[in-house]
Structure prediction request, 591 residues.
Amino acid sequence: MTPADNTLSTRTSGPQTAAEKLMPSAQEIAEATAAIETIDVADVEPVAPDKTFADFGVEASIVEALAEAGIVHPFPIQAMTLPVALQQHDIIGQAKTGTGKTLGFGIPLLMSVIGPAESGWESLEAAGKPQALVVVPTRELAVQVAGDLERASALRTTRVLTVYGGRAYEPQVEALKRGVEVVVGTPGRLLDLAQQGHLTLAHARTVVLDEADEMLDLGFLPDVEKMLSMTPAGRHTMLFSATMPGAVVALARRYMTQPTHIRASEPDDTGAVVKSVSQFVYRAHAMDKVEVLARLLQAEGRGLTIVFCRTKRTAAKVSDELADRGFASGAIHGDLGQGAREQALRAFRNGKVDVLVATDVAARGIDVDDVTHVVNYQCTEDEKTYVHRIGRTARAGKKGTAVTFVDWDDLPRWGMINKTLGLGIPDPVETYSTSPHLFSDLSIPQGTKGRLPRSKQTRAGLGAELLEDLGETGQRGGKGARGDDSRGRGNDSSSRGKDRGRGEGGSREHGPRSERSADAPRQSTSERPRRDRDRRRTRSGEPVEGGSAVNGAATAAPTTAVAPAEGAADAPRRRRRRRSGGSAASGPTSS
Prediction:
């Protein structure tokens, strides 16, 4: 029984979720794997290095747009996919990360749609309705895929809309009303708009499921099935991912028509990840990891770097500690609002920060140029996550470095990952921030300390990137989602802890009320009338010392107790101390 079969058998015990009920059985997986035609790179003739996209029948406008972006020659997955996909055959595409899967489905998708004023537009049954749908598991991947499609269709009139949660509904609804040809989005928001009647999928004859295994793991299968039921029966379906477990293949057979499984890689690259990634694995102590990381970030030739963490809290903590040490860092994790997440990613792309600390939300499909290092600050949960994480470097034929820190408690987990992927690193070497082999392995200059010298702090920082107002929905405690985002400060850590409410992990507000009101001004008295508080002191239920007459009993009290003598308001009032009983109307007792 395969690992995927074991996973399926354990999921069937106890109450099942909607996604688990749709999971295929082990027998269905075996039957599907045997029935689907598979094409490996060894089964086809090698692609000549001088072949261009035009040699595969790609439209001239798309070829020209890609050439302007510096993309001329296809990668193996693209060369193997185009002949099959352009004939409208269903495809299961599998290739290592960073090898061009997006254009593998993007080019056939764009060639299947018709934009305004293009040939055939007038004869469309529902012009302006989506003709193609791309479903991805994460918001960041949706933005990247849409960007690649827009780049490839830059010389056409094709309209591409990105749809995902965290943004306001209104702009997305308005764009759908104006008309679009291609919709790229995450399952939740896509299904919401479809159920509300804003998104019509009845004319989407091309459907792509990108990173299908991740959508399966995240429980998106019921949502995906609902969306597929809204599309035409004779649609062209393409499914792409770097990893393709048997369960995904079986599900693909359920939703696709005679699909072809295409597995592409370089002829001399037989590993689980691209050979151009240099992998280092160290057994590091939790208390020393930041010191090791700070030295690693000063290695010679280091460019943009992504640091992956397992938890949101760890990601935020590591980002803050690196900022304290002088590094230009940003963070992406689930506790940040969408505006702050996009701000950090834009700053990373634009070079304003060179260290991006992220949870696995950024491990899928994020393509940023010149990422030279990927650091697994914490050991990954499984081999699939490891492959996707380190696939953020060495993209498009470039070289990169992947460093993984393994705690003592994670050694069994790492052993399984190493065995499954055949990495040949079963026992990571014990490493500290002063270990000589750390400096020699990663080309770190001798004498490097855990703080970036001020002379090398040249990046603008996160605060230099604009924080957009996205009209966000479902904000969590306002953290990173407000206009006064406390994280938009670049390397300036002096403001940490200020303006943080209790929802942001800070302590209660300190200082007198006058100081707090200076930070958070209240509504002025000209806008809101002052409340007339008529307070009274009582003893045994009766007002004393000029207490206000509120009810009938108080009104019956002698007037001498309610109305003080003339001029008494100017004299200081003497405090009365009485232990028991006594008339409320009586004057103060002498001691």
Q: What stands out?
A: The domain at 3-264 is CATH 3.40.50.300 (Rossmann fold). Residues 1-13, 476-526, 548-565, 582-591 have pLDDT under 50 and may be disordered. The CA atoms of residues 32 and 250 lie 5 Å apart. DSSP finds 21 helices and 17 strands in the chain.
